[in-house]
Amino acid sequence: MIIYIGPLVLGLILGFILGTRIRDVPESGLKFDASVYILFIIVAFIVAYALGPFPYYKDTPFASGFVAAAVGVILGKLIFGRSSTPQKMED
Amino acid sequence: MSTILKIFVFPAAMVIICLGVLTILGGHITPGGGFQGGAMIAAALIFCLIIYGLKDSPFHLSHDFLAAVESVGALIFVLLGIAGLAFSGFYLYNLGVDIYHIIPATIQNLFDYPDPTHAGIIPYLNFAVGLKVMVGLTAVVIAFMGFKEYEEESEKSKDFEESGESEELDEGEVE
Questions:
Q1: How far from B78 is each of A40, B132, B142, B171, CA to CA, in Å?
Q2: How far apart are CA A70 and CA A72, in angstroms?
Q3: Phi and psi, residue A70, nearest 5°
Q4: What is the pLDDT of residues A32-74, one digit of tens each?
Q5: B64 CA to chain A: closest CA distance, Å?
Q6: DSSP notation for chain B
Q7: What do you get for the CA distance between the two ends of chain A, in Å?
């Protein structure tokens, strides 16, 4: 089985870019802890499996680009998205 | 907004973002592409902005970030076009991934897309367009929400000033 790296890398980059922007906002009263991200990964795998090898990349039985994007979001959040004092949006 | 929406929207937005990325990745062989995928990602971000508000949204999209992503998208598009111009004489010429047969096979495999079309630079153009559209559409909504907040704040301050003036006038009349 050959894993095609091109779509995986691009999906990972796009997901990572967006994952870096996720920040906790204590003032809002909402707290998205680890359970939310675990749930997201589980749902992402289910959706990717339901999509099948979309779009015609028959390397894996699931949509590898979708999973790469999900992993990218989580990685971006873990590496850069941990600050509790976010930059204000009006900046 | 209701608590149910606030709990549901953030995870749902992340799934929609992944679907948008998938739409961008398959743009050269399936319906979709850079614009459509970028619009899907922007929809997810806008979804969060509407539900949580501008300041409490879990996706913090600063002005610098929006400007940087928009610029990078435009730059990738222009550079790919100039590469075509330099190697073939035509702007945006699809060079493929093997420019003049000088690219090693390992790097070709890295950048080649594994479908029968061998789309060359098209997926990378889709990626650039996706970045631009994602940020552009979101920036429009952020700007509108910012204007609305500014308007509300200025109305409040105007009301406060007017009430202060009327109180001063009342006090003057009493004296």
A1: 36, 12, 27, 67
A2: 5
A3: -65, -45
A4: 888 999 999 999 999 999 998 877 677 788 888 899 999 999 9
A5: 8
A6: --HHHHHHHHHHHHHHHHHHHHHHHTTTTSS--HHHHHHHHHHHHHHHHHHH-TTT-SB---HHHHHHHHHHHHHHHHHHHHHHHHHHSSTT----S-GGG-S-HHHHHHHS-SSTT--TTHHHHHHHHHHHHHHHHHHHHHHHHHHHHHHHHHHHHHHHHHHHHHHHHHHHHH-
A7: 48
C-alpha pair distances (Å), A86 with each of A20, A90, B76: 11, 12, 29
Amino acid making up residue A63 = A
Q: Which two tokens stand for residue A75?
A: 């990685």
Determine how many CB atoms are found less than 10 A away from the CB of residue B100: 7
Query: What pTM did the predictor assign?
Result: 0.85
CA distance B125 to B130: 8
By the CB < 8 Å criterion, does B77 face chain A? no
Give the number of residues written for chain A: 91
Q: Chain A, 27-86: which have a CB under 8 Å from a chain B CB?
A: 27-28, 30, 32, 36, 39-40, 43-44, 47, 51, 54-57, 59, 63, 65-66, 68-70, 73, 86
pLDDT tens-place string over residues B88-145:
888 988 877 666 666 777 777 666 666 666 777 888 899 999 999 999 999 999 999 9
Could you tell me the two tokens for B43? 């929809």
